[in-house]
């Protein structure tokens, strides 16, 4: 639910988009990536759809926020986190030199 434009009353939130990811959601997604990507029983020879299906399944079991995240949403958020981590690692490497 959201407050209306006048700051009074409550209106239904738009249906098409879940709320922003919280720090807890980001941590859960990172931990999910670690668990799923390091699972020796599956290996690296799986389709993208199978991989992200496993990511969503693992994420959903541990998600306590009450917000249902789609596979597409998880992939998009992971792409942002991964990009930021790569940028940080490049900066760290430059500092180390």
Describe this entry's structure for a reader:
The protein has helices at residues 23-37, 48-62, 71-96; strands at residues 2-3, 10-11. With 97 residues, it is mainly α. It has one domain (23-96). A hairpin with a 6-residue loop joins strand 1 (2-3) and strand 2 (10-11). The protein is globular, with a radius of gyration of 17 Å. It starts with a strand and ends with a helix. The model has no long low-confidence stretch (mean pLDDT 84).
Query: Approximately how much beta-strand content do the residues carry?
Result: under 5%
Radius of gyration from the alpha-carbon trace, in angstroms: 17 Å
The helical percent reads: 55-70%
The run of helices and strands is: EEHHH
> How many E strands?
2
| Uncertain stretches of 5 or more adjacent residues | none
- Structural class, please? mainly alpha
Tell me the count of domains.
1
Widest beta sheet: strand line-up:
1-2
The first-to-last residue Cα distance is 50 Å
Average residue-wise pLDDT: 84
Tertiary shape: globular
Tally of DSSP helical segments: 3
Largest sheet: 2 strands, antiparallel
